């Protein structure tokens, strides 16, 4: 069983993916972390973000079990990740890793931007999780403030819109809803409501 979840930053897809994996007894891969890990390695070594060969070399040394989300979630790493994510050869390399993860039993939940369209086109069920940019910026702001970090709603909103544009307009594997994906708009939902809606969609798809 493979659950493919795509959607823009701060849509709630990561939390939903983790909770669905727990609920259905599946493994979980946040594929955004794979792009972040490559970007972080390049930044740490002072290497260019636009060199396909170097990025592919970094991806070959990537260990999925050793990606530290608390380090990789830094804002500047997200920005750099969305730039390296435009490199076609890097995507090919990371997609291979992600597909290997998805194929291992008992199945998995993968979340990202191109899971339903490229990584797992034959997934058991596909969700496209979205929310208005304003709702996403509000959530991100509240999340940072609750951790005692600084957060400016306006600049977060601008960053999200810029990243959405880069992710949905790139030529290779742009973020888009797969034709057979269920749309889940969480703008007016809290996480509990969104989770229940996602469980219902998956259960119905499995029963069908
Ligand atoms: O989901 P997250 O914000 O961690 O992803 C960071 C960046 O990695 C995204 O902005 C996107 O450019 C890229 N990404 C991607 N394909 C995926 C997952 C993430 O292009 N499957």
Automatic annotation (TrEMBL):
One of its GO terms (biological process) is pyrimidine nucleotide metabolic process. It catalyses: CMP + ATP = CDP + ADP; dCMP + ATP = dCDP + ADP. Residues 3-202 form the Cytidylate kinase domain. ATP binds at residues 7-15. It is an enzyme of class 2 (transferase). Its EC number is 2.7.4.25. GO terms for molecular function: ATP binding; dCMP kinase activity. It is found in: Cytoplasm. Pfam families: Cytidylate_kin. Belongs to the cytidylate kinase family. Type 1 subfamily. HAMAP family: Cytidyl_kinase_type1 (MF_00238). This is Cytidylate kinase. It comes from Roseibium aggregatum. The gene is cmk.
